[in-house]
Amino acid sequence: MLIRLVASRIVISLFSLLVVSWAIFWAVEWLPGDTAARVLGREASAESVRVLRARLHLADPPLVRYGHWLEHFVQGDWGESLAADRPVVRYVFPRLRNTLILAGLALGLYLILSLTIGVVTALFHGQVLDTWLSVLTLVGMSMPEFVVGILLVLVFAVAVPLFPPLALMDQVKTFPGLLYTLSLPILTLTAAMTAYAVRMMRDNLIEVLESDYVQMATLKGLPRVRVVLRHALPNALGPALNVTALNIAWLMGGVVVVETVFNFPGLGRLLVDSISFHDVPVIEAIAVVLASVYMLANLVADVLVLVLNPRLRAS
Amino acid sequence: MRGPPAPVIDVDSLIVDFWDRRRWTNVVHGVSFHIFPGETLGMAGESGCGKSTTAYALLGYHRPMSRFNGGAVRFLGRDLLRLPARELQKIRGAEIGFVPQNPATALNPSMPVGHQVMESLEAHGACATRREAEDRCLGLFADMGLPRPKVVAGRYPHQLSGGQQQRVVLAMALACHPTLLVLDEPTTGLDVTTQARILSLLARLRARYGMAMFYVSHNLGVLAQVCNRITVMYAGELIEVASTAELFRNPGHPYTRGLIASLQQVSGFVGTQPLLRGLLRRDALPLGCRFAPRCEYSQPGCFTSPQSLATVGDGHEVACWRWPDIPAGTDPADKGTV
Amino acid sequence: MLAWFPEWPLSALIAGSILVLHGVIALTGPMWAPYSPTKILVGQPFASPSTAHLLGTDNLGRDVFSRVVYGERTVLTLSLSATGLGVLCGASLGLVTGYARGWLDEVVMRIIDIMISIPPLILALLVISALGSSPLLLVLTVAFFYVPRVARVVRAATLRVVMEDFVTIARARGESAWSIAHKELLPNVIGTVLVEFAIRSGYAVIFIGSMGFLGFGPPPPTPEWGLMVNQGREYIVTAPWAVVAPAVGIASLVVPLNLFTDGMARLLGQSVPWERH
């Protein structure tokens, strides 16, 4: 039962990934107009357009081109960057590493913050602290990342110069140096994710804390701490883990904006830059990578919901 | 003749309020009763009358968004409403056991049931080692008539039937040999056969463990099977207290009569007592007798003068000033003629 | 509807009034804004806020206050039309599939599963980079992302209603599908649709603002808040007001919108689908 459900989710995700890769390819290469002409701009000579058309195999029928592209992509051959004349793989991977560092650190901070704040707000449910935190999380969820980022720069880099306004990776040598350089982007990414998770956790925990089995645990004479940690938290964690997986999915869009705010040399900014250069192979590669992580995280979220449901797990 | 023994628990003018959107609403209104050692006291009343709230108060507990607003609940001399949380923890589950209304939701869905029983034993220091706790848990399961205790202990709640879940919860409540067992509609969710089995199990357990019991139910028939004495609650107030035999032989309050009549009708016996009409509506309670709007015998005076329990016989109390005027079997058509 | 008024939480009432203010600015702003939003050098570049320029001027000497006021209309028009379109199509799809059930429902739900698994920002970037950025395209893209998400929620709500007895009774009475949908279904699903619209308007403001910030929204010199933040970023030390004003503009729109949605959802007994897309 459970295995079948999980398997069907995986199959749907794989199929979706195929559809998305096709959509990406289509969006970049099949749209009206000649890709080569679009890449090179209006002033390009006929000769250079012809060269580029040959290089992109634009003479082939679209489906054949997609097939070729997919075949090479799966084998790790992501083509040559048009702007840098380098293999896309070599171009993309250092950026991917940077993005993963940033996202990883933000996730770490997010996990610590959301777990503590979520539990605290639920425990103080109905009191002044809870009301304020509740409004605060709503504000956090309502602020676009670029607004949060810019305001953080304004306060902590311009008004009170505590942290660097731009996250430039070249000078980073040590781990503390890394944290210092990335502090503002990490905070920006964490803010929205945490607000979102705290709200979900709080709502869940409150529901669970009012459940019959938590009341029963209290009436059994268990200490409050044990009631919350052993009976309430495990049952509220399932949805919270689900939110975390969705947050990771969201990060794939969030990094694009936040990397732009802080000029951070990551995948998201490379995508934005490549779009302005019309660097087709790079755009395709990054879009597929980001979409894969996004869909993988969504898949994990779905599977977690299934696996953490004790009814399904035991049968 | 010796005086009566000291009661196990003594509830004195208990008042409980609930937070209802923007103000406190009174739910339990000055309820007093006591339970003697080894005695089973029943509490009858329809849903929403405050009987579960009273049951919780016996453990010094009130639900979220509610509060104790007066009175005392003295358990062996200690007032549970004024006890610090740490002291309460020691009493709950050890000296007072609780059996909830719906065992399916009262068991933690993500913890094997054996674990949930052992946890209770460990929290109260009833067992020196884990091994001992495990043995006691399996022993309890056997006592409760659960087949293959070892298998059941490793199961999650949803893998058990309703009757099995109720037996597990009973084991949990009895784990530390409590002096008092509070049962909140323990058989409501079960089918009739399972209900009968649980009731006979309860009778055996009482004989064996000798604890006092407080049994809440909307079903007078069930209470008649297990209780020595019965209290009847209406809209947060006690309206009648009597021994089980006396209550059925000689019910005083029109509401009690209605309850008994409904019971007889359900069992196919057509009596002469009027049935209950209407539903308990807390938003439309009169100043006087709270039952007056639904009462077949009410007079204008009923709506304005509050009623309180008055002794009418040996251990029989009724909160109705008109009760002597209503001989058993009176036809409600006589309404108005005193 | 007005009878609910005393039931609304204070925070939602305050939020509601702020939203009304935003609406009034969007409608009447161009009538009383002191300067043209695109005219350069109406004052010294980088002039700090003064009586002549309430929120100062930007690097090109444009009046920031006027740009923010005009931007209100841009933001509201784009996000409300995108949300309206998306919710309208999504809700209709959800109603139809939830009501019809059967194979149609199955097929549509599978397609919806796939559509939801597409990362919105990335695909929007690709589409707009390929077709060029135009406001209409932006609106259509956002609406496209909302259709499957709204459809899923409305379908679930429809299923809940359809399972209830009164629809079965209406069917037994021989009422037509149209009249059932009109008389029984719609009034019961309308709460869900309202909450969907409210919450997604907020997401749309964020999404469209982010696209503007990345340079894929309405082209300069359109007074669009996201774009203004991005352009002001370079001069954040000399003219912080040119960045703060539009940033606060967005925040003061989305925060009350979500507070209001939260209050409204609670009143309607709905849960809010916080999902940020």
Automatic annotation (TrEMBL), chain A:
Transmembrane segments: 7-28, 100-125, 146-166, 178-198, 282-308
Family matches, as InterPro entries: BPD_transp_1_N (IPR045621), MetI-like (IPR000515), MetI-like_sf (IPR035906)
Topological category with respect to the lipid bilayer: Multi-pass membrane protein
Primary site of residence: membrane
Keyword annotations of the record: Cell membrane, Membrane, Transmembrane, Transmembrane helix, Transport
PANTHER family hit by this protein: DIPEPTIDE TRANSPORT SYSTEM PERMEASE PROTEIN DPPB-RELATED
Protein name (record): ABC transporter permease
Organism: Candidatus Segetimicrobium genomatis
UniProtKB/TrEMBL annotation, chain B:
Principal location class: membrane
Segments forming domain ABC transporter: 9-260
This protein's record includes keyword Cell membrane: yes
Domain of life of the organism encoding this protein: Bacteria
Annotated Gene3D superfamilies: P-loop containing nucleotide triphosphate hydrolases (3.40.50.300)
Keywords: ATP-binding, Cell inner membrane, Cell membrane, Membrane, Nucleotide-binding, Translocase, Transport
Matches recorded under SMART domains: AAA (SM00382)
GO biological process, one term: peptide transport
Topology relative to the membrane: Peripheral membrane protein
Family, similarity comment: Belongs to the ABC transporter superfamily.
Protein name as annotated: ABC transporter ATP-binding protein
Source organism phylogeny: Bacteria, Bacillati, Candidatus Sysuimicrobiota, Candidatus Sysuimicrobiia, Candidatus Sysuimicrobiales
